[in-house]
Design a protein that fits this description.
The longest helix has 25 residues, at 238-262. β2 and β3 form a beta hairpin. This protein is 66% helix and 3% strand. Strands 1-4 form a two-stranded antiparallel ribbon. A two-stranded antiparallel sheet has the order 2-3. The protein is built from 19 helices and four strands. It is globular. With 429 residues, it is mainly α.
Length: 429
């Protein structure tokens, strides 16, 4: 079924690859509910929704696309959901879930047609990289804020926090611990960094252990089927839908191509069974919206499983089984997520890793580099991923036109620019 012999792998190798991938990405079941609970959502409901949406998407990836790729609610997309859409725009989390669902349905339609390739081709490579880097800077900023390493200042808007505060000091220690584990290439360094920081928090009296570590999963009813689709259209949240769709589409595609190339699964530089792979993410995003979480995305952490020999969907299925087991550990996961010093280092380091793509931008080319620069800096400064994307998308074709390079811009991209201009200038952003 999984073509193990054809791909030169074995069942034990695939199982070990699944365990490795699980350890590198399981931090999301702690971090994601912690972020979305700041938008007023029930922690336990989001926790269960996170696990179930991840399992649904990853099962489809493993069974129908047969790739060792794991999907789960994406970092950056959850921050956009909680801090930009809900926190920044004052939209209810129910309406925000409605926008995620609409984006998921559109993603399903695109995955079934060739239009997805046209949409991806329309966006310049430099801007794709800039969006990834901008999201990385944004979630790093959020991590520093949550831990009070950066605090508000009446004179300079922002300043360095009091590093003597126990929670802030523990965050710095936790960050150092995770970086040491990362430097020594420890598998699952983020997850183990969280556990070590949790032990330190307990020693310092900042963490109180729950009465029980294991409990039956409850609370999904607080978020499941609570989405408000009508509010999406009455509120004119088209830029939000577009942002969810855009990021999910090319982030997932880019990650899948990268992991598939690492595993040697590309054929003539083409991605076989791409429709099934994209449908896995599209269905995962739609399912997640129904259950109560932000959009899913392919995880680059899948490459850790590939590095130890994972080549088939059996790796993904193994991760699903391990994710299902986490459903019974909600008491301890809730405690871990409630301590900023435990989750903030993960946000900071993931943000750092996402900034790596900046080296792929041609900084000597003004028309490519300046719009990319605007996207990167404006996402954290405006506290809005959509605004950063929008302004970059407006400036890019303007510079091309001024330099007489009109044909360098895809016709669809001009439409993107006009829509973002209307949204930013005339509507709430």
């Amino acid at each position: 079924m999984f073509k193990l012999k054809e791909r030169g792998t074995t069942v034990p190798t695939e199982l070990m690859a699944g365990v490795t991938t699980f350890l590198t990405m399981v931090y999301i079941v702690i971090v994601n509910p912690g972020i979305l609970s700041k938008a007023g959502m029930d922690f336990h409901g989001v926790f269960i929704a996170t696990v179930l949406a991840s399992i649904v998407a990853t099962l489809i990836m493993g069974l129908f696309a047969n790739y060792p790729i794991v999907l789960a609610p994406g970092m950056g997309l959850n921050a956009y959901f909680a801090f930009s859409v809900v926190g920044g725009s004052g939209v209810s989390w129910q309406t925000a879930l409605g926008a995620v669902f609409v984006a998921g349905v559109l993603f399903i339609v695109l995955s079934l047609t060739s239009f997805r390739y046209m949409l991806l081709d329309a966006i310049p490579t430099s801007l794709k990289h800039a969006i990834t880097a901008g999201i990385g800077l944004f979630i790093t900023f959020i991590g520093l804020q949550n831990a009070k390493v950066i605090v508000a200042s009446p004179s300079t808007l922002l300043t360095l926090g009091d590093l003597r505060e126990p929670m802030t000091a523990l965050t710095i220690i936790g960050l150092i611990v995770s970086l040491i584990l990362m430097a020594y290439q420890v598998r699952g360094f983020l997850f183990f960094g969280m556990l070590i920081t949790a032990v330190l928090a307990w020693i310092m009296g900042l963490l109180t252990m729950p009465e029980t570590f294991v409990a039956a999963p409850t609370g999904l009813s607080a978020t499941a089927f609570q989405l408000d689709i009508s509010g999406v259209f009455s509120g004119g949240m088209y830029a939000v839908i577009f942002t969810f769709l855009l990021i999910t589409l090319f982030d997932t595609t880019g990650t899948m191509l990268g992991v598939a190339e690492q595993a040697g699964l590309l054929k003539d530089n083409k991605f076989p069974r791409s429709r099934g792979a994209l449908l896995a993410d599209a269905i995962g995003t739609s399912t997640g919206a129904l259950l109560g979480t932000s959009p899913t995305s392919a995880y680059i952490e899948s490459s850790s499983g590939v590095a130890v020999g994972g080549r088939t969907g059996l790796t993904a299925i193994t991760v699903c089984v391990l994710l299902a087991l986490t459903l019974f550990f909600s008491p301890i996961i809730a405690v871990l997520a409630s301590i900023p010093a435990i989750t903030a280092p993960a946000l900071i380091i993931v943000g750092f890793l996402m900034m790596n793509v900046l080296r792929k931008i041609e900084w000597q080319d003004l028309e490519e580099a300046f719009p990319a620069f605007l996207i990167v800096v404006l996402m954290p400064l405006t506290y809005s991923i959509a605004t950063g994307i929008g302004i970059g998308f407006i400036v890019y074709p303007v510079l091309k036109l001024l330099r007489g390079k009109r044909s360098d811009v895809h016709p669809i991209f001009y439409l993107f620019a006009v829509l973002f201009f209307i949204q930013i200038v005339f509507f709430s952003h």
